[in-house]
Every structure is written in structure tokens, then in C-alpha cells.
């Protein structure tokens, strides 16, 4: 049976923010390599208050993304439940004159928790090092796949691939020149390759150190290579 027979992929609705956040909390935050390592490294100092603040910060920034940026969900036709999501972030070439630039959610809704602030800083730093607008100087607008999440009970059915394919179609229809993402698991990288994305930069997480010189992502091994992957939407 095909994805289309069992699932519907559509734009998220504002009333579904809580559902998407719950999906992220159960199926993304505990598994994403970079955040998982940061939480593990700071386990001794994570009080209940800090953990609550992390959850609150995550919910607020996901809500901001859903309200201000593109987001698609996968719905199980049988149960009518949301079982997948692709949260996307729009960005523009800083070297090109563009009216009405997209909101920078990290600046508009900065997390109160230092650990989460470091998490977003590290993720953005990795993407910045890929120098996408330098590699593709004619690209004006790019669409980032920030988080592609599928409920554990619905995995290995091709939903992450379908969500990315629909995200690429959204990019084509809405004036984006490039789609990209930072992929931190072997499975997500393979799924990205299936939709035609290719790596423009691989990042060895074992080369990241804290100010004291200690490895930040020692517990990421053997899955310690993250990749910035892209697909050109517009041919120049």
C-alpha cells in the first residue's frame, strides 16, 4: 500500500501547535544527536526547574516556527492523528537585496535556558560553516528542513521521505531556490539522499570542544558525522 493510501500530508493548522509539540517531545528531542549529547553532558546540573525551562523554551520556539514559517504534517487517515511533521525555516541570502525578510525565530524568541541557547548556537554555527550562500551565490531564498519527525509507531514506511518530497514541492511552488538541512543521523541522511539531496559539508562532532578543551559530543560515536545536505530547486 502506498503512502497516499494511508497518510495525508498537508499544511499545519494553528490549533495543532500543542499536538506538534507533543510529537516533538516524544519523538525528536530525546533522540536528536546534538541535543541528546548536551543533555547527557550536563545531566548532573539539570535540576527539575532547568528541565522545565528547557521544555518551555522548546515549546515556545516551535510555536513561533509554526506561526511564522512553513510547516507540514503527516496525518494517519485511519486514526486522523498527526503522526509526522516537517518544520521548516526560511532564510535569505544576506548579500542580495530582498524585501520582507523572514523572521529569525532564534533572535525573536531567544531561549531562557543557557543549554538550549548553546544548542541552537551550535546548530546554526554548523550551518554557517557550510557557507551555502557562498557556494550558491545566485540563490536568493533557501528553505531549511529544521526537524523532520515521525512517530515511532509509523516509522520505516517512507514517511520521512514523503515529508521531504512535499517540502521540496512546497519550496518549488513558493519561490525558494534551494532546500537544505542539517542531518545528524545515518537514517535521516539516507532519507535525504533518496529525495535527491547531497552533502556539501560533513561535520565530525568529535572535533567540537568546550572552553575547557573537553569533547562536547564524545557520546555521539559511532554516529558522530553530521551532514549539511542540499538540493537546488532552481537551475541557474
From TrEMBL:
It comes from the Eukaryota. The lineage of its organism: Eukaryota, Metazoa, Ecdysozoa, Arthropoda, Hexapoda. CDD domains: NAT_SF. Pfam families: Acetyltransf_1 (PF00583). InterPro entries: Acyl_CoA_acyltransferase, GNAT_dom. This is Uncharacterized protein LOC105365317. PANTHER family: AT07410P-RELATED, N-ACETYLTRANSFERASE-RELATED. SUPFAM superfamilies: Acyl-CoA N-acyltransferases (Nat).
